[in-house]
Amino acid sequence: MQLQLPEPSADALAASRSLQLLIADDIRRNGGWISFARYMELVLYAPGLGYYSGGAAKLGKDGDFTTAPEISPLFGATLAHLATELFAQTDAAIMEFGAGTGKLAFDILSELRAAGKLPQHYYIVEISAQLRARQQEKLRDFPQVSWLDSLPTTFSGVVIGNEVLDAMPVQLVVRGEHGWLERGVALDDVGAFIHADRPCDAGLTAQIPEADSLPAGYLTEVHPIAVGFMQSLAAMLQHGKGAALLIDYGFPASEYYFPERGQGTLMCHYRHHAHAEPFYLPGLQDVTAHVDFTAMARAAAEGGLEVLGYASQAAFLLSAGIGDLLLRTPPEQSAQYLPQANAVQKLISPAEMGELFKVLAVGKHIDWPQRLYAHDRSYRL
Fold this sequence. Notes:
The chain is an alpha/beta fold. The chain is built from twelve helices and 16 strands. Strands 2, 3, 4, 5, 10, 14, 15 and 16 form an eight-stranded mixed β-sheet that branches. Strands 1, 6, 7, 8 and 9 form a five-stranded antiparallel β-sheet that branches.
């Protein structure tokens, strides 16, 4: 497949080539085949070469994609006000996973500082050394912030994961003529990456509703690593008191595995171009898949957490008060108001992020604010 995308620099091409050699060696060491999850893990997280562990800009106008915090500080401000409500029921502490550039943490902490309600602690769990360095620079004026390499045993407070689940490696499965196969990665005669299928472990398709009724050729993703993350999150909150907000693009299982969605949701992002070719320039592009929110909610519930709510990003932000925060700038001050209103529109419009992105809230010993139930879709999970 020939993609017409912007040319990378010579240094970037050299780094991608080094990563390709590393992955090829891994394939050979494993008998000529690795799972797609292993491939995705290497292209995203291989030390010094993977997409999230290399040195290229990832987010914003100079990167490959834009996230909600990059669009408007009111996204973080809305989460900040919800967090202060929850602090009344739990510890005044926030834990953020995969904080990117640090923009969301900066916006949350700036809003809380302006309100005189800074938390005692703001923990960031970040595995990318390069992103951690950017966060440390961005958040240097907030001594409440500290970085963790892994989840603590217990935690009480508010947990935030914005576009974290979609960056977790997925397994690919395809329906064959006589049952399900796992689609992995092998090498062709000239050493290029190719897809290769092999018999599938029966447990791998357990999260697919009515899996055996799907047609031959049906390709999709399953999410054992993200499920494992939700189980670890549940274990962490099990002996504490708090709520976790997982914000991402995805669907409940009943929509994720539509017969019409027969080629899955895997997507790659390079310089604000989206395409479906995961073997293009390994290490220089993001590789993601939509989230199966039913599987995430089930893992949390099986771990002892309560599903507090599930809603579209638009419904969540509006119920949580983003409109009131926007109106702190009077509409009559059009030079200041209109750019903010346009940014909020991107966050809530069904044609932009408002409907594709969802918010799953799970927790322990927490009373979820009543107004957030107005457009709750937990019954769809």
